[in-house]
Amino acid sequence: MFLPSILVIIFAALVIMLILPSFSPLVIVIVSVILLTASTYQHFQFFWHEYQDSTWQASLKIFAPGLIITAVFVYIFFTGSAFLTSGTLPSMPTMELPPASTATNAVTSAINTSMNAVSNASASVANSVVNATESVANSLGMNNQGRRNNNNGRSNNTANKGPTTSALAVV
Question: Is residue 149 part of a domain?
């Protein structure tokens, strides 16, 4: 029993070191799936009677749906509580075009105005969500002291901060 197992291990090591590196990842995955399927089939053929005689866990099958549902609710709870306690939302990056006074056409001015409106609206929504989250967290006793403002150091001034490179400004 000892020598055949040692020979199989040595043969497997030689295959792994000498032959396997020359195969592509796709071939390795296909061979792995085939070997996993064959070994699973062989395992169930060999141990089928042991699985048939093992009946102590059959009464636990009725608890499986409840365990899965409980695990999903616990995951949702911890994910939600992590969101509530962090108090930060990803903010939208500032989008700027050249000031309207230097724009070469009305299209650039309209785009600049609409992007400022979208940026202001998204910042307002983000601040409202953070304030609501902080209100809920405070009412539940989960407030974090020293939390930074959602603006991340940005000013609320929506005026243009200078010209930027834009494809529309060249037109």
Answer: no
